[in-house]
Amino acid sequence: KGLNYSGIDSIVDNKVEYHRIVVPRGGEYNLKLADGTDVWMFADSEIRFPTRFKGNKREVYLEGEAYFHVTASKEHPFIVKTKDMDVMVTGTEFNVKAYSDEMNVQTTLLQGVVTVFSGLEKKEKMEIKPNQQAEWCRRSVKMRVREVDPDLFMAWKNGRFIFRQDRLEDIMRTLARWYGVEVVYLDESVKSMLFAGKLD
Fold first, then answer.
1. pTM exceeding the 0.70 threshold for the entire prediction
2. Residue 122: CB partners within 8 Å, gap ≥ 6?
C-alpha cells in the first residue's frame, strides 16, 4: 500500500534517480518522498519523482489525481508538474486532478497558499487560498478560480465519495476508476442528469 523514501536526502551521493509509480484502475497508493512529503494517489494515476531532492527546488510529475501534504521549506519550493498546469508551494495540503481524458485540470487547496501556472506555455500565474480551486479548461483554454468545499474534492483520501449536483457521467467516471469497471450508456441523455450523495 505504500513506499517510504524519507531519509534518503541525507545520503551523500551526487547521483539522483527517478522512480515512477503507476496506480492501476481500482487501486490506491501512499508514498512518502525523500523530504517527508506525503502523497496519496488515486486510481488510474502515475507519478514520477526523484529518489532524493537536490538543488533549490523539489519537482514531481503527475498524471491523474493525488493529494499532497508537503513538508514546509521556503528555500526549496515544491512543484507538481502536469501537462497543462504546474502547482508551486512551500508547504501545504492540496489536491491535484489532471486526467488526460477529462476536460478540466483542477488544483484544490485545503490550507496554506499555492501558486498555479497554466496556459499553453504555463505563463499564466495565479495564487489561490484555502477553500479555493484553480481550474484550467482545455476546451476554452482559460483558467478560473472559484470558492469550493474542499471535502467534495478530497473525501476520497479518507475513504468517501461526496457528490453535489454532479453529472451522472462524471460520477460514473470516478466510480469506474475506483472499482476498475467500464460504464456503458444505452441512452446518452442520462449522462447529463444531476445527482448528489455520499458513498463509503
1. yes
2. 85, 86
